[in-house]
Amino acid sequence: MNYEIRTSKTNHPVPVVNDVLLHSIYDPQREAENFVNSNQHQFDNKRKFLILGLGFGYHIAQIERVLGQKKKPYRIYVVEPVKRVAKDFIAQKPVTFTENVTILTGENIHEFYTNENLIDFLLDSPGIIAHPASFNLHKDFFTRFLRYETGTDAASMLQSIKNESVKQYLNDNCRKSWGEMVHDINLSPQFQNAEDYLVLALSSLTNDGNTEQQGEL
Question: Looking at domain 3-149+210-216, does it have CATH number 3.40.50?
Answer without folding.
Answer: yes
